[in-house]
Amino acid sequence: MRLRSSRLRTAQEVARRVLVLSCVASAHQFPAGTFNDWLRRWHLWNELSALETELLTAAEPSEQQRINATWRSEALQVLLWALGRWERLLPMSELVALDDLMELLRDPWPGTVAFLMSQQLRDVRELEDEFAQVIAARDRLRGEDVGPDGSVAGVVLERYETLKWMLNGDGAAWDEVSLET
Fold it and tell me: Does residue 17 contact residue 47 with C-beta atoms inside 8 Å?
């Protein structure tokens, strides 16, 4: 499915988002502020959304912030798949394990520049085909938490927002992507 105003994000934009989301998704496992200096050093701090900044600067994140952060593992899976670092997306009925994703990111931390510069995106048609599948799954959910095919609403939503951001359908920043088709 081709979005009307589609301008595919660059591989470097996606890679930068991967590094930011890896910090956000795992923030609840570390003391407050653990990633802040690293994000600033690599000029990634300004890429945080307002919600992400609140999470990473909270002395004690709220339960809702922790839940939201864990759901970002689903978005991280999509981004890693789009960069070819994750072979295939799990079915929309399964939740991805953050530890499995972080295993793929062991190397980038000391070589951040090399990581950012060496990434390539899958063909745009693959991204658009996946987006079409996600839209179909979203339509089947009809407001339910689990669809008739077992699709989990949270997984579908994270994939929808992530793919729409990558395909830049409405030009919105991360966390500001419209949920409208």
Answer: yes
For residues 107 and 127, what is the distance between their CA atoms, to the nearest angstrom? 25
Q: Report the largest interatomic distance among the alpha carbons of the chain, rounded to a whole angstrom.
A: 46
Task: Write down the residue that tokens 């929309």 correspond to.
Answer: 92
Q: pLDDT for 132-161, tens place per residue?
A: 999 999 999 988 899 889 999 999 999 999
3-state helix, strand, coil in the chain (%, to 5): 55, 0, 45
The pLDDT tens digits for 20-57 are 999 998 888 888 888 899 899 889 999 999 999 999 99
The size of the chain, in residues, is 181
In the chain, what are the domain boundaries? 11-167
> What are the contacts of 94-103 at 24+ separation with CB within 8 A?
94/152, 94/155, 95/152, 95/155, 97/73, 98/25, 98/26, 98/70, 98/73, 101/22, 101/25, 101/73, 101/76, 101/77, 102/22, 102/26
The Cα–Cα gap between 72 and 162 comes to 10
Q: Hey, what are 38's tokens?
A: 């690293």
Q: For residues 97-116, give the mean pLDDT.
A: 72
